[in-house]
Recover the amino acids of this structure.
């Protein structure tokens, strides 16, 4: 007699349970990127949301967002056809390059009317995971308060960015020491 979760089960019952599990396995709903972003948001001081974004060619699309308001930021970029994520994609930064926008709020002034636009998040910390052909994939952290995602965030997010790259593109992408202080690839010959 064997115990399963404290309940006595004989060998025939255990075999029936195993066969049932093999015929109808429990659905797996685990997503490594969702888990990573959840932990990242909970770990980084000041972070209110996180997402994986792909920006370029006038469009931004975020996946695995921990807050639906991230889609509002994407819509803002897409409607205007510009914004910090699109501008960074045009630059084509190296892997692990960091973009910090201390305050996403801005003013529209046409000479007659001045309007202050305040998006759902005030600060953005975006780390490049991959950039090529005018597109950039990044790990983005958002904060509802301005000026809260700084150097401490950069140091901590580097670890999350490396793991996100591994989950997205496989393990051979970024290796510790693969870039120099300026973010340029090192030659390992």
């Amino acid at each position: 007699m064997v115990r399963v979760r404290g309940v006595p089960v004989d060998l025939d019952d255990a075999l029936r349970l195993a066969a049932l599990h093999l015929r109808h396995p429990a659905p797996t709903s685990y997503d490594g990127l969702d888990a990573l972003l959840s932990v990242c948001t909970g770990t980084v001081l000041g972070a209110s949301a996180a997402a994986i974004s792909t920006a370029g060619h006038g469009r931004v699309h975020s996946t695995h967002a921990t807050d639906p308001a991230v889609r509002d930021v994407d819509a803002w970029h897409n409607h205007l056809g510009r914004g910090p994520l699109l501008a960074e994609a045009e630059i084509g930064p190296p892997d692990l390059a960091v973009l910090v926008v201390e305050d996403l709020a801005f003013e529209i002034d046409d000479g007659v009317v001045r309007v202050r636009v305040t998006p759902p998040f005030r600060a953005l910390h975006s780390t490049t995971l991959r950039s090529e052909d005018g597109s950039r994939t990044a790990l983005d952290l958002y904060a509802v308060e301005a000026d809260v995602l700084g150097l401490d965030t950069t140091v901590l997010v580097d670890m999350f960015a490396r793991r996100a790259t591994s989950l997205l593109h496989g393990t051979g992408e970024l290796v510790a020491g693969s870039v120099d202080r300026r973010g340029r690839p090192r030659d390992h010959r």
